[in-house]
Design goal:
With about 725 residues, the chain is an alpha/beta fold. Helices cover about 40% and strands about 15% of the residues. The chain has a 7-stranded mixed sheet. A 7-stranded parallel sheet has the order 12-13-11-14-15-10-16, sandwiched between helices. The chain has a 6-stranded parallel sheet with strand order 17-22-21-18-20-19, with helices on both faces. Magnesium ion (MG) binds next to α12.
């Protein structure tokens, strides 16, 4: 008898090598996880036979004839198959005995690429199996259709799977029997049989429901364990101190906190005051004011004698955070300096491209504790960065980081620090429950008062009037004292279309399901340098100061440009997506996105979030040279709403399921095959309830060895995926 870890070779002999070579299918478990793509009845049906497409269909032989070849020796076989609606010709240039199987009235499954000959649809040398042979195994009402593997057609997979199922023992089940009974789920063994050898679609659905639940359940058990482990840790409480930095800072705030900011602030203060480390996710709409919330938490950490680290995904954002925090703190950020406030601390910046001397000085401030607040990029995670007493870790724009990076920074505390994770991409509840399921969640729903609305238009690039109007609007805004971003998909000093924040094809649907993204258009993409040059020639913009910003500038250059833009010394900033996240220049009121169709929905929403931050009405112009339907749907959706949750849903619904995890959080791209994170809210909720209850009872899973093994496999897969990405 076989188990899921048995090697395939002894069971299915010749096919095993092909499975191993073409799809890395090595074990019984691998093969059983090679799910059918769909199911067919045994009625003749050739579907919509399209020229050039691979066809798998059931048909009946209508006629068959052999004739001698004209120029060569041998016999040619011509067969017509039909499903009653259309006929397809089949040609074998050598009969080879096919004439014995392909006789009129015989029924078979045929597979091949559809061509044409004499204006008739044709399959040349197709693969086929006659239903009588196919059924010799065990006749089931449905025929599962698998992807072809190397040269093996679907029926070889069917046959192989059947042989494996014949010798398979009951397989271990990660879902305990009592949970199965409560949720009315079949065993894993039954599910595997149901999905591979069903008689009805109801059986398939029962199997899928069970496998879907299992994915959600195993995932929730890992999260429950992670949470439990975190709750068992102890740390230094960091309560806010009366008369400290935070109080001084609050006293000078130029605005009142929104109700949401106050509420989240109170929650954070309470959690940081406990001896169990906080693990909180703060999500909120673009511009909802997350930075202040984080800064106030950091000040509380400093007040209680600890340090706070703020991890940002790009140098531009780290630089900005450093500048704004320093500016907002004023003399409070001049700790230990002449003229500094008595409560003061120092704010340090640590990035990868600092000079050695600068870096050494910063590292010293960090290790001595002179710097109470340390802002940085990935450079913060390096081993030689030591803190005096790290009390709070803030991760900004978490979607750019993995759990592993969060953990690397946490590891720098002498005791586990409190953790606040912020994400600018609002995430639907079910995504929060799966991707961030080990964190408590807070949401900032409202924007600060006094925000003016943003209007968004799609601008067709090929209409000269529209483009002229675009630049005229830019000029008008600048004359009114405002500033403008122009974002391009490429840098353009050579042909590499990337940047610190690479251009993702995140929302490009993969409709044929073959895993290949559609080919990029031949149209050259607008580059920062080309657009910068073009704007210099644009009469409407004469006399304006226009500068470029992109990831390949040195960090000093980036800082200098960004600082000038922030001070209002530049009118127009032509940049790549380095300004996508976090950048905060309230005086900017226009965002022009070139080749907007090349950006995903969430990306456009983020980019648009750079404007409308002061009291000035914002204008976002999405310039596109395409009229492809999918692209226009995305752009129109972005134009139609500024509700980030709605756009996030749309964006995620357009991704392949496995990418949702990856998209929401780069650190965890492990495949989910059956669970739809957006749609299966009930399943996720039930699984979460069951998982948390089980882990509360049996934290180490000692009484659930099968589940423990499944959890281990999942965690290993996550780590492998993380290591692979480097
Ligand atoms: P995000 O949540 O996108 O990170 P930021 O923290 O960058 O948003 O805040 C956006 C802008 O709103 C900043 O200029 C910030 O100073 C300002 N801001 C934050 N809170 C308030 C408030 N309560 N009232 C007015 N302006 C605020
Ligand atoms: Mg932000």
């Amino acid at each position: 008898m076989a188990t899921e870890s048995s090697k395939l070779a002894p069971i299915i002999a010749s096919a095993a090598a092909q499975f191993a070579k073409a799809r890395d299918i090595q074990t019984v478990g691998d093969l059983l996880a090679f799910w059918p793509r769909r199911y067919r009845t045994r009625d003749a049906d050739l579907g919509t036979a399209e020229v050039g497409k691979f066809l798998v269909g059931v048909a009946e032989v209508k006629s068959a004839s052999t004739r001698p070849m004209q120029k060569r020796k041998g016999t040619m076989l011509n067969v017509v198959i039909t499903d009653g609606r259309h006929d397809i010709d089949i040609t074998f240039f050598k009969a080879w005995g096919h004439e014995k199987a392909l006789v009129p009235k015989a029924r078979g499954i045929f597979a091949g690429t559809v061509g044409t000959y004499n204006q008739r649809l044709q399959l040349t040398h197709p693969g086929y199996t006659m239903l009588d042979d196919f059924d010799a195994g065990d006749r089931k009402a449905l025929i599962p259709i698998y992807r072809s593997v190397g040269k093996l057609h679907t029926w070889t997979a069917t046959e192989s799977v059947r042989r494996v199922l014949d010798v398979l023992d009951d397989v271990p089940d990660a879902v305990p029997a009592d949970v199965r009974a409560r949720r009315k789920l079949v065993s894993r063994t039954d599910a595997l049989r149901g999905i591979h050898t069903p008689d009805t679609m109801a059986e398939v659905e029962t199997a899928r429901r069970r496998l879907r639940y299992e994915e959600a359940f195993v995932l929730q058990v890992t999260l429950a364990q992670r949470r439990r482990a975190a709750a068992g840790q102890s740390t230094t409480p960091r309560p806010a101190r009366p008369g400290g930095l935070l109080e001084a800072f609050d006293g000078r705030l130029p605005f009142t906190l929104t109700a949401g900011q106050q509420e989240v602030g109170a929650t954070i203060a309470q959690e940081m005051g406990r001896d169990v480390p906080m693990h909180r996710l703060l999500q909120g709409e673009v511009g909802s004011g997350k930075t202040i919330v984080a800064l106030r938490a950091m000040l509380a950490a400093v007040d209680s004698g600890g340090q706070a680290a703020l991890l940002a995904p790009t140098e531009v954002l780290a630089g900005q955070h450093h500048r704004t925090i320093t500016a907002m703190l004023g003399d409070l950020a001049e700790g230990g300096m002449l003229g500094g406030s008595e409560h003061g601390t120092r704010v340090a910046l640590l990035t990868g491209s600092q000079s050695t001397a600068e870096r050494r000085r910063t590292l010293l401030d960090v290790v001595t504790g002179d710097a109470g607040i340390v802002v940085g990029t990935h450079a913060l995670l390096q081993e030689n960065v030591d803190f005096f007493d790290l009390g709070l870790v803030v991760v900004d724009e978490q979607h750019r980081f993995g759990v592993e990076q969060r953990d690397a920074l946490r590891g720098k505390g002498t005791v586990p620090p409190h953790v606040l994770v912020m994400t600018a991409t609002p995430i639907p509840r079910t995504v929060a429950m799966t991707v961030f399921g080990d964190l408590e969640t807070s949401t900032l729903r409202e924007l600060p008062a006094g925000r003016a609305p943003i209007t968004t238009h799609v601008v067709p690039e090929e209409k000269p009037n529209w483009m002229a109007r675009t630049w005229a609007r830019v000029a008008e805004e600048v004359r009114a004292g405002r500033q403008v971003y122009v974002v391009c998909p490429r840098i353009g000093d050579d042909d590499v279309p990337d940047d610190e924040t690479d251009l993702r094809t995140e929302a490009v649907a993969d409709d044929d399901g073959d895993g290949e993204a559609p080919a990029a258009p031949a149209r050259p993409l607008k580059s920062v340098y080309a657009v910068h040059a073009a704007l210099a020639e644009e009469p409407a913009l004469a006399g304006l100061s226009v500068e470029v910003l992109h990831g390949r500038l040195t960090s000093d250059e980036k800082d200098a440009v960004m600082a000038r833009f922030q001070r209002g010394e530049l009118d127009v900033l032509v940049s790549t997506t380095v300004v996508e996240v976090g950048v905060d220049v309230p005086n900017a009121s226009v965002m022009v996105v070139m080749d907007a169709d090349r950006f995903g929905v969430s990306q456009l929403h983020q980019l648009r979030g750079r404007i409308g931050r002061g009291g000035f009405p914002g204008l976002c112009l999405l310039v596109t040279g395409t009229d492809a339907e999918a692209a226009m749907t995305r752009l129109n959706a972005v134009a139609a709403t500024t509700d980030g949750f709605e756009l996030a849903r749309l964006d995620l619904s357009q991704r392949r399921e496995g990418d949702i995890l990856g998209a929401a959080q780069h650190g965890r791209r492990t495949q989910l095959e059956f669970l739809h994170i957006l749609e299966d809210e009930d399943v996720i909720e039930q699984a979460r309830e069951d998982a948390f209850a089980l882990v509360a009872d049996d934290p180490e899973l000692g009484g659930h060895p099968d589940l423990a093994a499944a959890v281990r496999a999942r965690v290993d897969a996550e780590q492998a995926a993380y290591l692979e990405r480097g």
